[in-house]
Sequence to fold (290 residues):
Amino acid sequence: MPELPEVEALRVFLGEHLVGKEFARVLPVAISVLKTYDPPLGVLDGAEVTGVDRHGKWLDITADTGEGPLHLVVHLARAGWLRWQDPLPSGPPKPGRGPLALRAALTGGDGFDLTEAGTTKRLAVHLVHDPHEVPGVARLGPDPLAEDFGPEDFAALLAGERRQIKGALRDQSLIAGIGNAYSDEILHAARMSPFKPTATLTPDETTALYEAMRSTLHDAVARSHGLAAGKLKAEKKTGLRVHGRTGEACPVCGDTIREVSFSDSSLQYCPTCQTGGKVLADRRMSRLLK
Fold:
């Protein structure tokens, strides 16, 4: 799933390639992709793109229709992606069982496709007057890379939480943009168990977790800076130290990276770095093995 660093890189890429250009047409190809119907996508024909923003994992493309700005707000979900094409294929896209979900064509012949692999279709596109009309945007917590989001703000967010830290980091209403992969990376950098209860965090541990979060995300954004959209997935994978690396050696201590599997996801961690050498039971209600 694209998370904050990849979506931020897409924001920068689209800002460089879209702003100042006009939409020729925006066409939904998959029935499930479009979540709003008023205003219709047709009003974007001839609209000039004036900005590209990010809200957590959401992309926000602003276009001026001549009657005020509209926002094309996109969530790529678990298996979605944006593919830039110059030029776009000629002829209208054909609906079918392929991954193509939406095509945005510019008057110059270039543009982008939104694609989604797999059979579970969760990619979402909204056309709204204000991005906060989108429920997923309206409920977002603060951005962890915002300049005014300091360690005291982070500590205040966690102060009322009574759950495991892995789940807290992934909660978009608590803090925006962190998903399964980067929560693993942050916890590894902080040398903290994914199942550590937030209520047991000391002030020093909370500060260390904040610093690990900021440095991990900043480093990932920096690695993605200047990359074309098509190269961002590969960059994310190569930059991860524990997530998706079950059975490999930890780059810090050399211990074997372990995994805990759930019904629809999994997490990875290093026992030596994060759990005092103890191995977490690989079942849904995992506990530290005694």
